[in-house]
Amino acid sequence: MSLRATSRALPAMVKVAFAEAVAYRAEMFVWMLATTMPLVMLALWRAVAAEAPVGRFGPAEFTTYFLSMFIVRQLTGSWVAWELNHEVRSGALSQRLLRPVSPIASYAVENLAALPFRALVAVPIGAVALFVVGRSTLASDGRLWVVWAASMLGGWLITFLVNVGIGALSLYMESSLKFMDIYLTMFMVFSGYLVPVELFPPLVRGAVEWLPFRFQVGLPVELMTGAHPLPEGIRLLAIQWGWVLALSATVAALWRNGLRRYAAYGG
User: Fold this and answer.
1) Considering only CA atoms, which of 19, 111, 42, 103 is closest in space to residue 74?
2) Which residue of 180, 193, 196, 208 has the fewest C-beta atoms within 10 A of its own C-beta?
3) How many CB atoms are closer than 10 A to CB 65?
4) pLDDT (tens digit, 9 = 90+) per residue, 208-242?
């Protein structure tokens, strides 16, 4: 499964994946509705901040933060863990393995091909609301937006790799979705999805800042809302991409060894 074969097949893969995303647009819409928790948290935190600011967050700052979170979450999501579990149990993974392209590459293309549709539906709503209500609290340094773009890619890669890694555990056991449930619970709590990381107590925040959850969505939102000066943003970006490299190596090992087991048992 060479890089050359993947690059040659890429245009066709993107075309097919995009057609599937359009065909299953109803499922995609349901998925987007399931990721609107930031809008719920926006209403809750605005009510709290109406009494008194929470740290640096007043109503306007919470509005900007959670609308940014809504956009970032829509553009960095992945569902490979569920798909992998299903395909391992049904044997459909065997069909992917017969193709000249790595299944991981095809999963990545399928996820990315859905982004235009999700962006078309979700981003205009969030973006208009963001610029109308909270544009004064967005980052004003143009260089931070370059760092933000890199952090969005890093956030998607971490989410995708975690999904592949947990999905690959299904090659070792009947189902790994319980692990995904645990991971999602930790993600909700420690990523900044429900509560900005900077509002955690210092001891908890010190631990959270070195876990991968924050770097999935929290860091892009922090950069988007101007929470960090440029040097700090670059430092955090370096940590994020360190996680990308570490997860890439871990997932590669899990996948390689898992496929040996899969083949040994007649997958």
Assistant:
1) 111
2) 208
3) 24
4) 888 999 999 999 999 999 999 999 999 999 999 99
